[in-house]
Amino acid sequence: MKASIPNGICEALRERREEGALRTLVKPGTGIDLCSNDYLGISRLLVPEAGSGATGSRLVSGNSAEHEALEAFLAEFHQAEAALVFSSGYEANVGLLGSIGSRGDTIIYDELVHASMRDGVRLSAARSFSFRHNDPCDLRKKISHGRGEVFVAVESIYSMDGHDAPLRELVEVCRERGAFLIVDEAHATGLYGPRGEGLIQSLNLQPETFARIHTFGKALGYRGATVVGSKELREYLINFARSFIYSTACDSAMVRTIRRAYDIMRELNQERAELFDRVQFFKQLREHNPGLAFLISDSPIQGVIIPGNSSVLRAEEELKRHGYFARGIRSPTVPSGQERIRLCLHSFNSREEIAGAVGLLASHARQGGLSHVA
Predict the structure, then answer these.
(1) Of 137, 192, 236, 333, which cross-links 202 as Cys (Cβ 3.0–4.6 Å)?
(2) Which CATH number fits domain 7-265: 2.40.160.20, 1.10.20.10, 3.40.50.1370, 3.40.640.10?
(3) What residue ranges of the chain are covered by domains with CATH 3.40.640.10?
(4) For residue 35, what pLDDT band results from cuts at 50, 70 and 90?
C-alpha cells in the first residue's frame, strides 16, 4: 500500500514544473569541468582507495551513479519507494521538517524529540506545538486543533530516555485525522528487525508512515543519514530541503562506506541477540538496586538519574576513574532535576562490566547521600 502524499507537496512540485524551475539530479558530464567547486583539482589527486572527492552539491557536480545506486539500495532495504542521502542526521531532520508545511499547515511533535527535529520545526512556515511524551491520547486531543495538512514528528527510540514510541497507537491517531507521520529511527536502525531495518519495519508499519529518517552514525558506526518515503517526497526534498540543496555532496568513499556498513549490519544477528541479552541483564540490575533512580527503558539506552549538574559530573568522573567511559547528561539538555548518567549498552559489553558500572553508581549515590527520585 502506498502512503498518501500531502496535497501541498504535490502542488509545490506542480508549480515548479510549470515555472520550468524544477531541480533534478544529473550525473556530472565527462567533458571539461567548468561547474564544480574543485578549484585546485585536489579531488583528482586523492588516493584511489578513497575514491573521488566531493566537488559540489548533488545538484551541481556532486551527483554520481554511486549515490543513486546507494539510494536505490536503501529504498529497497527499508521497503520504501525512494530514499535521499544527507551528510548527517542533523541535516536530514532539519531539511525534512524545515521544508514541509506551509503557513496553513501544522506540525505536532513529541515534547522529547531530538534537537535536530525541533530546529527543523522552527524553520518550517507551518504552525507547530508539542504533545505529551509518548501519549497518544494527548496527541489525539492536540491533533484536533491542527489546521491544513498535519504532520506528526516522533522518534521510534528516544535518545535521552531510551523509551520506545507507542507506534501502533500513533499510527491509529494519524489515520483517524489523515495526518502524516514522521519517525526518526536514529536509535532503532541496526537494532530492531531481523536485519536491523528499524522499529517501524519490525512492526510492519512502513506503509502508513509518511517519512522515516535512518541515521548511519549510531549502530552503523559511521555518519550520514537517509530519508525514505515516496518518490514525491524525494523529489520535494531535492527541490525544497535547503540542507540538501546547499550542502556539498557525500564523496564516493562515504557512499561506499555506508553501503559496506549496511552489508555488515544485516548479518549481525548474533550481536543483536547478545545486545538485548545485556538489556535484560541491566533490567535485573534495576530490580536489585532500589536505591538508584533508574530510567525505565527496554532499549539499549539506559540511565540513572542523579539530580544536579555538579552531582552528575562527579558521578561521571568516578566512573572514569575506574575505567568506565559514560557521559553525564546535564540540564538544559534534560530538564533540571533530571540530570542523569546515560549508559549505552553494547553487544561487546560483558555482564561483569555492566554490573561494575551500576555498582559504582550505587556506591557513589550512597556516599553522596543522594535521595531516590522516582
Answers:
(1) 192
(2) 3.40.640.10
(3) 7-265
(4) low
Q: Cα(first)–Cα(last) distance of the chain, in Å? A: 43
**pLDDT of 369:** 47
Q: Which is the catalytic residue, given 105, 110, 184, 339?
A: 184
Q: d(Cα 321, Cα 16) in Å, to the nearest integer?
A: 59
Q: Answer whether residue 272 shows pLDDT above 80.
A: yes
> What superfamily in CATH does domain 269-368 come from?
Aspartate Aminotransferase, domain 1 (3.90.1150.10)
Q: Tell me whether residue 114 is one of the annotated catalytic residues.
A: yes
- Known catalytic residue at 214: no
Known active-site residue 18: no
Quick: pLDDT tens for 136-161. Answer: 999 999 999 999 999 999 999 999 99
* 33 is a catalytic site residue: no
